[in-house]
Specification:
The protein has 589 residues and is α+β, with helices and mostly antiparallel strands. The protein has 25 helices and 16 strands. The strands form five sheets. Strands 1, 6, 7, 8, 9 and 10 form a six-stranded antiparallel beta sheet that branches. It has a four-stranded antiparallel beta sheet with strand order 2-3-4-5, with no helix packed on it. The protein has a two-stranded antiparallel sheet with strand order 11-12. The relative contact order is 0.09.
Length: 589
């Protein structure tokens, strides 16, 4: 009976669910390769440059110094996982190194400003590694990287020289971090040497991160050339492309092809994680780690909004670089004037209290990263105290009434807003996603209606979760949105791989790549898939699995020297695969 009710509710509600903007058919802007750096912008845009220079974007990656570090390195000792680590004195950190012995490493760069700071050192081969002790800025507290990544140092053991050791590939800045902390980032990986010559135009999220290369713009105005200014203005882009300018770093996912430029389709470069990802998103789609707010924003009923509706990327000198302070409801009430005019009737809280501020109920602060940070909810949704308690979801009411019994928030809420809990589409979504993540028997019944939803995040999430149960997702390969088409690939590969063959020529690079990966065992397509994957390795050569798959393809084709070379490139990135190492030794004979 309960399943029938939930299914009926989901079917009834999906007609009123939020609509994300459809993918833009607009062609990308022409590419320029002349990068100038933000300093070149200051000559004409002095006031804007001065504001930007104080933002977190401008200071996201800096040289280590007493001024750039929020807590002194003065010899503090910090113990985690039974390892005593020493911070300082000066620009150094003593911690476990390769082989498990304590060693002292120079500290060179500081990542982050306001929330968490991380520190880097450079090892042999140009490998920039993120050191194991982090700093939670607001509480001035050291903590271990295992706490940040795995949920707590007491819960996990990291043996020396293992895949999760800080000095191995998993914590490598060159391949994992740099593209979102610099402008015009080039990994510079040499797959045959296993070394890096990484470069960037500037150590910041600079002007050209959002506007594209500025050389042509500078020449245009210095020469007073005729015609339109060639610089890209994100505000003039279609809404989805404007959101993606920020989403290039504010979305969790795997970079399939580096080199995204503002105005291009982000989903052709980044394989974006969605509702299937329990590590980064709560089951109702809200962020659970880092400031990855693109996917939550795409789910919102509000707007549709651009990021710059609320945030000034050039800086405002207040948290979040908001155009208006958090306590100013104008950004919301310009559309919701009726609520603003009778705010106490709407909120049932005194007009000037925190309980009457829009963001406190509809964008509550959520704990992320194992308790080491907080982020505002960008789904901009309606509170649901009963479902929040039942499903262990972030709860706007509990943010102020944390120590109160459940009835303190649930009973008044249901009296003030009769039927709101039952009408809340996010509660139904969370139940469906939880069922899919757990592989519950009712998952297919709860998730299938979302395949026809208007919101592509919901369609894609349903497809990825239904793929685990063997649902037929061939129809989703024809979806208008690339998120959904990509989501269908894994499920289709298991039962109807022939349907993926046309995707080997798909114009979207993420879809083309995932189709090739899914079809790698098809002997009749071996040469074709080899060509596709060779093309992707030419664009990004620091993804270990691509070298492994090419090794398999070359070996199956009898191209043994190429197979050995590819396996060796794979092992430089992933040396723990003893089976492949033995395979290489046999092939050499």
């Amino acid at each position: 009976m309960l399943l029938t009710v939930l299914l009926a509710a989901a079917l009834a509600m999906r007609l009123s669910l939020p609509r994300s903007p459809p993918p833009s058919p607009a062609p990308p802007p022409p590419r320029s390769e002349e990068w100038t750096g933000s300093a070149a912008c200051a000559a004409c845009h002095e006031e804007i440059h001065a504001r930007w220079a104080k933002t977190a974007h401008a200071n996201t990656l800096r040289d280590f110094s007493a001024e750039t570090t929020a807590k002194p390195f003065d010899g503090d000792r910090f113990v985690a996982r039974d390892i005593e680590q020493t911070l300082g004195p000066g620009a150094s950190m003593e911690c476990e190194g390769p082989g498990g012995a304590l060693a002292r490493f120079p500290v060179e760069l500081v990542i982050g400003v306001r929330r968490v700071q991380m520190f880097t050192t450079t090892l042999e081969g140009g490998k920039i590694q993120v050191l194991p002790v982090f700093l939670e800025v607001q509480r001035s507290k050291w903590f271990d990287y295992a706490d940040f990544i795995f949920g707590g140092p007491a819960q996990i053991e990291i043996p020396p020289d293992s895949p999760d050791s800080w000095y191995t590939f998993a914590r490598n800045f060159n391949s994992r971090c740099g593209h979102c902390h610099t402008t015009n980032y080039r990994t510079g990986y040499d797959a045959d040497a296993g070394s890096y010559e990484t470069t960037w135009t500037e150590r910041a999220v600079g002007c050209e991160s959002c506007h594209g290369p500025g050389g042509a713009h500078v020449h245009h105005w210095r020469g007073m050339l005729p015609g339109e200014d060639p610089i890209l203005h994100p505000a003039k882009l279609p809404l989805d492309r404007a959101q993606q300018v920020c989403g290039q770093c504010h979305a969790e996912g795997e970079v399939i092809v580096p080199g995204f430029r503002p105005g291009e389709d982000l989903f052709a470069f980044l394989d974006v994680a969605g509702l299937e990802d329990g590590k980064h998103l709560h089951p109702d789609g809200r962020a659970n780690e880092l400031i990855h707010n693109l996917v939550p924003l795409l789910q919102s009923r509000c707007g549709p909004l651009a990021c710059t509706t609320c945030h000034d990327p050039h800086g405002r000198g207040i948290p979040g670089d908001l155009y208006r302070p958090l306590g100013d409801d104008w950004t919301c009430t310009q559309c919701h004037a009726d609520k603003g005019a009778s705010i106490e009737e709407h909120t049932h809280h005194p007009r000037e209290s925190d309980g009457s501020r829009c963001v406190n109920c509809h964008m509550p602060r959520m704990v992320i990263e194992g308790g080491h940070g907080r982020v505002f909810d960008h789904t901009i949704s309606i509170p649901s105290p009963r479902a929040s308690r039942q499903l262990a979801l972030p709860n706007a009411c509990a943010d102020c009434h944390l120590l109160e019994p459940i009835r303190f928030e649930v009973e008044p809420f249901e009296r003030w807003y009769p039927g709101a809990e039952e009408r809340n589409h996010r509660s139904a979504l969370a139940r469906a996603v939880l069922a899919g993540r757990r592989g519950a028997a009712e998952a297919a019944d709860l998730l299938t209606p979302y395949l026809a939803d208007r919101n592509p995040v919901y369609r894609a999430g349903a497809a990825r979760l239904l793929a685990r149960g063997g649902s037929d997702l061939r129809a989703q390969l024809r979806d208008a949105h690339p998120l959904v088409r990509r989501a269908a690939i894994d499920g289709v590969a298991a039962r109807h791989p022939e349907a993926l063959v046309p995707l080997l020529e798909d114009p979207n690079m993420v879809i083309r790549y995932r189709a090739a990966r899914a079809l790698v065992d098809r002997g009749d397509l071996r040469e074709r898939i080899t060509t596709v994957l060779e093309g992707f390795v030419a664009l990004r050569n620091d993804r270990e699995i691509d070298h492994y798959m090419l090794g398999r393809l070359y070996e199956a084709s009898g191209r043994l020297p190429q197979a050995v070379a590819s396996y060796e490139r794979y092992l430089r990135l992933w040396p723990w695969d003893t089976a492949t190492r033995s395979r290489v030794e046999r092939l050499r004979k």
